[in-house]
Every structure is written in structure tokens, then in C-alpha cells.
Specification:
The chain is mostly helical. The chain folds into two domains: 1-53, Homeodomain-like (Arc Repressor Mutant, subunit A), CATH 1.10.10.60; 56-196, Tetracycline Repressor, domain 2 (Orthogonal Bundle). Helix content is 73%, strand content 0%. It is built from nine helices and no strands. The longest helix is centred in the middle third of the chain and has 25 residues, at 55-79. It is elongated and about 60 Å long. The relative contact order is 0.10. GO terms for molecular function: DNA-binding transcription factor activity; transcription cis-regulatory region binding. Keywords: DNA-binding. It holds the Pfam family TetR_N. InterPro entries: Homeodomain-like_sf, HTH-type_TetR-like_transc_reg, HTH_TetR, Tet_transcr_reg_TetR-rel_C_sf.
Length: 197
């Protein structure tokens, strides 16, 4: 990562990543060319390649930035100090809020993996790394909700999230979010009911 004399991330790099993020998410990874990113970010091609030696590296940086934003959102929910079930509800509500947003175009990670199906490709690997983190995070929280092993419930939560993210731009977002949130509540209720049974 290129930094200026004060140790800050270069303004040109930030502009490139902001521009790429907007374009990649709205239009797709393969659909957006380097020339367009350079033009809209108002940098030279040489500047782009100084920060990102290839388009693939720019795509990976975009996904890492989206992953970081997701982590910060989860960290905010965790920092509230709520019981695990309420933290999971807060995470689910944040996902639903994103689906309801005006510029929602599906999950950045599911969209990326559809364009980069080769599991060995760095873009695909960035998607898998983020998904592994998310699954681990919700599974760890679910371990504190009920006594049953949490792995199946964690996978169930991620599947619900994937379905909501995929359906959110194809169907009525309000209905999709309602279904998703009810599904998460069902997971939590099932785990909590199994304790009292």
C-alpha cells in the first residue's frame, strides 16, 4: 500500500478504490474496464498500476474494503454488549437495512464469485476468506444461544443471508427482509426452546 510522507494512504489510491468500488458494485467486475476507472478517478494509468499492479489486485482490494466495512458493522454490534441472540438480531437487521437501500445490487461477494468461478483465483479466494470469517462469527455467537452444537445453525444463518442478498434485488425488498428476519428469529427461537425442553 502506497503511503505519503505522513504515513497516510495516498489520496490517489483512495480515489481509485472509491471509484472502483462504486463502479464494480453497480455494473460488475468484468463490465468495468481500467480505462473507465482511471478516467473517473482522475488519475493516470501509471498511477493506477503503481497502486494496483493488475485489475485483479484492484478487484481484491475492492472486496477487502467491502469485507472491512462488514467487519466494522459486526464489531459495532458486538461492542454494544448485548446478549448473543440480540447481537445476531442486530447483525441481521443491518443486513436487511442494506437490502432496503436504494443502490442495493445484491451481495458484492456472491456477485464476484459468479464472475470468478475458479476457486484458485485470488478474487475467489478473497470471497471465501470473507465467507469463512462471517460463518465463524455467527457460529461463535450461536454457541452462546442454546446448548445444541451451533455449526448447523451457523450454516443456516449464512444460507438465509445468501438467499436474502440474492432475492433482495429481484423481489420486493420489504418482503425479502421480513422473510429473512423471521428466518433468523426462527433459528434463535429453536435454539432457545431446545434449552427449556
Amino acid at each position: 500500500m502506497v503511503r505519503n510522507a505522513r504515513g497516510q494512504v495516498s489520496e490517489a489510491r483512495s480515489r481509485l478504490l472509491t471509484t472502483a468500488t462504486r463502479l464494480f458494485y453497480a455494473e460488475g467486475l468484468h463490465a468495468v474496464g481500467i480505462d473507465r476507472i482511471v478516467a473517473e478517478a482522475k488519475v493516470t494509468r501509471a498511477t493506477l498500476y503503481r497502486h494496483f499492479p493488475s485489475k485483479d489486485e484492484l478487484v481484491v482490494a475492492y472486496l477487502q474494503a467491502v469485507a472491512q466495512a462488514d467487519r466494522e458493522g459486526v464489531d459495532t454490534a458486538l461492542a454494544a454488549g448485548l446478549p448473543a441472540a440480540d447481537t445476531l438480531r442486530a447483525i441481521a437487521s443491518s443486513i436487511a437495512e442494506g437490502i432496503r437501500s436504494a443502490r442495493f445490487r445484491g451481495c458484492a461477494f456472491l456477485n464476484a464469485v459468479a464472475e470468478y468461478p475458479d476457486a484458485a483465483h485470488p478474487v475467489h479466494q478473497a470471497v471465501l476468506a470473507h465467507r469463512a470469517w462471517f460463518l465463524r462469527t455467527v457460529t461463535d455467537l450461536l454457541a452462546d444461544v442454546g446448548d445444541a452444537p451451533p455449526e448447523l445453525a451457523g450454516r443456516h444463518f449464512v444460507l438465509l443471508r445468501d438467499g436474502a442478498m440474492s432475492s433482495g434485488c429481484l423481489a420486493d425488498p420489504a418482503e425479502v427482509c421480513d422473510t429473512f428476519l423471521q428466518g433468523v428469529e426462527g433459528i434463535l427461537r429453536f435454539r432457545l426452546d431446545s434449552v427449556s425442553a
